[in-house]
Amino acid sequence: MTSITFQPDHRSVSARFGETLLDAGLRQDINLPYECRNGGCGVCKCTVLQGRVDPGLYQPSALSDAELAQGKVLSCCATALEDVIIEYQASAASSRIPEYTARVVKMEKLTYDVMRVLLKLPEGQAISFKAGQYVNIILDDGQRRAFSFANPPHEPEFVELQIRLMTGGKFTTHVFEKMKVGDEIRFEGPIGDFSLRESERPIVFVAGATGFAPVKSMVEDAFKRGLKRQIHLYWGVKTLKDLYLPELPTRWAQEHDNFHFIPVLSEPESETAWSGRTGLVHEAILEDFPELKEHEIYACGSVRMVEAIFPFLKQHGAEDGACFSDAFSVSARSMAFQPRQGS
Questions:
Q1: N or C: which terminal CB in the chain sees fewer CB atoms within 10 Å?
Q2: Whether the model pTM is above 0.85
Q3: What Å distances lie between residue 278 and 33, 92, 267, 283, 312, CA to CA?
Q4: Within a domain: 341
Q5: What total of structural domains would you count in the chain?
Q6: Is residue 338 part of a domain?
Q7: What are the pLDDT digits (tens) for 200-218?
């Protein structure tokens, strides 16, 4: 284990292998500032006073190259490579995110590796949220796993999560192998500021794998609110079997003139009859939108997906102030980066 000393607390804590600075501090009751936990907001920015850290993956808008050169990192992404001393702004520590205990009331396997889980809060409790936000599932050892609300805000009776099975994933394996109706789940939320901006611009959603969960919430919310803006959803998956719930956006397109659904398979199986789009999802977007100026882009997927597609989209007119992402990376303890979901 490595030692992390937090200033101005003058408190030292032990970090497990691959555990982020933030997770190590929170697990040992240090009230560190944070919000998104996905390298996107910059609230958890801190300074490395001594020792070496791996800054991890994050969005450049949250931490500039100049700041990184000055020794600043995001505690939600960075991991200690040796004993370190970290300074954070105590005044930035936000109040604790509300915590809830709910019960699993329904489990439905949507495809071979995606489970829909419905959670219900105790009678008299409710959670208010914005479409696009997410919750952190709290594991027994204090670790967190992030999952987007898949239900829209106007359907608050249940919290709907779409959970993808990750190889070796502690929580997702539990969901698929041991979780049952009636189990209690602790979570905190709502978290994040990934939501539709108020404008008249056409909307382009880019979803990777279970990045469809926040899209579902946001699109159903948009329909409920009567938004008439043009909405195009590009959903990129490897094969046809990875495309779960395709009938839902297909129905949206039939019922709403302003909604368009474009699934894209990157590795279509030869034995599967597929007449739709193939290749990389950003290539499909650029075929349809050679000019993206005056559009809003909402990318729902991994940090790597966002880093891969945004430069191409920006080359075709997408503006920095009109590109939004809920990119979420699992901490290095899982040694993998997953699309907007916990392991």
A1: N
A2: no
A3: 42, 46, 8, 9, 17
A4: no
A5: 3
A6: no
A7: 999 999 998 778 999 999 9
